[in-house]
Protein: Thiamine-monophosphate kinase
Organism: Echinicola arenosa
Amino acid sequence: MSEKRTEIGELGEFGLIDQLNSKIKIRHQETLKGIGDDAAVLDAGDKVKVITTDLLLEGVHFDLSYAPLHHLGFKAVAVNISDVAAMNAFPKQITVSIALSNRFSVEAVEALYAGINAAAEHYNVDVIGGDTTSSRSGLVISVTAIGEVEKGKEVYRSGAKVNDIICVTGDLGAALIGLQVLEREKEVFMADPNMKPQLDKYSYVTGRQLKPDARMDIIHELKELDVVPTAMMDVSDGLASELFHICKESNVGVMIYEDKLPIDKQTFDTAVEFNLDPITCVLNGGEDYELLFTISQDDFHKLEKHPDIHFIGHVTKADEGKFMVTKSETAVQLKAQGWVHF
Amino acid sequence: MSEKRTEIGELGEFGLIDQLNSKIKIRHQETLKGIGDDAAVLDAGDKVKVITTDLLLEGVHFDLSYAPLHHLGFKAVAVNISDVAAMNAFPKQITVSIALSNRFSVEAVEALYAGINAAAEHYNVDVIGGDTTSSRSGLVISVTAIGEVEKGKEVYRSGAKVNDIICVTGDLGAALIGLQVLEREKEVFMADPNMKPQLDKYSYVTGRQLKPDARMDIIHELKELDVVPTAMMDVSDGLASELFHICKESNVGVMIYEDKLPIDKQTFDTAVEFNLDPITCVLNGGEDYELLFTISQDDFHKLEKHPDIHFIGHVTKADEGKFMVTKSETAVQLKAQGWVHF
């Protein structure tokens, strides 16, 4: 028996996941897409069903010292709905499993579920199952979301074509800056529990961290405007990291423009206050849950005047690489940073 | 703001779950069944899809001091497949999310996934997604399974009719007894690490605890024999508890016979060794993952000679109650005990 011990850090989270995924076989033709996109895609007659799941742990993905349980319940659902949206699908059902210890009261659990139910109503989904169990330590939340879309209308990461226009919704970097503010106020509070947190002037960025909204509104609008993106994903790990995924899956390159990147004024100002480069926050901040997608130039006129869709660049050939043109008109190579959990 | 704090223990796990579920609304007609059966049922053209999920936590659902990671990976899948089987459906896909700390080596994670992949092969399912993340404490495994069956052939807990025959597969109580053995050997080992665990003569019962098999073989056979049970569920919480669920959902009573209850000899002998009543183990032992189902009397001849299906009683009217006729021909009222996690 081998006693070899390799630390996970030696491979990294992505290295470990790649190694595990390489051993997975697909056996059923109903499985149209397995691992490797925002959600799996299953054949269901004239429709496809999409399935996605997320596991959230206290102390890793959220901190109950500043995340209200109602918001946390909402967010746990929203992050999964965002993955359904990223497939151009419409969410229908979710399952929610919770593990909690007896440090939680019935009222606390009810607040968590009130957030879950508020999200179920907001996104028009049915809570169809789950598991409630005890935990010896922190709170664990596992959500699986199931969505549906007409067959052929589902959008993968792999469909971007040269000259397609790169679009992103909303603004970016706010959730990361919100987290910085919350962490700072927590430290202030830990040092002196009589200090009141100063959060009023940061309400937009903290809201983006604590209660993100999946962009189902955009998916409904794309349908009404008869636009099917060529590739799409949600911005959960950071814009640069997501662009790298699209480049890899679509075998293309990208050219984006710094002056086109959407950033909110409060995000910008707060980044400066924290001595952070706002553009780095936009490129590498995670958890914004906006949509990043590419469209054919033929569809540009349909979206051109949309107030919340920004055209940040275009798709190039793979061998042209991945670049950002800065405000001083220099092309700099993009780096994927994303989040590292281990 | 109310400062009321109600302890979860005041409501109990089932009370809490009932209270949370009472606030859930179903919005989509595609959701044929939400919470309340072994799996949810979704419309999918001429088929239905069934979805079930389980959340397993170290220290609550498993103990790594005696559960080998390979077996644990297999079991995490099998318990979900068992819920698919309980709907009379055929499993097609699973998602697997794992949270683990850096006390696990790459080799340990590979052993866990080898068990997951072995189960995926054994049950002929595709691993289509999941999440791998870090945990600050113990190992967490969340599996969601998706199955499929021709519309109208899915079996709920609610279909049992008066005079139907109650069937159970395999034998019961072994997993509970296996757990007793493993816990005892762990204590011996903790007291003196030089002691070798004495497990050889308990291999059947410990195997039933560590690596249960979902009874997909029975679902395939029922299909071949053209038998659709009137009601079905898997025995995860204990026979008595499951019978109570069927009685409640089908609005019926039951009469079962002690001398018909299947128990393996090693289970019986080991129960006696532990000063436990073997029949109590059969009635209230959890985690056997056998199938409990009811069939119309017209179908009895098709199953009559099956070596691994036992006919333990029949369905009565609800007002006739839930009884077991003992070997001494006394009718005693059944009590549901099941597992309490909080």
Remarks:
- Chain A has a mean pLDDT of 93.
- The radius of gyration of chain A is 21 Å.
- Chain A touches chain B through 82 residues (CB under 8 Å).
- Chain A is about 35% helix and 25% strand.
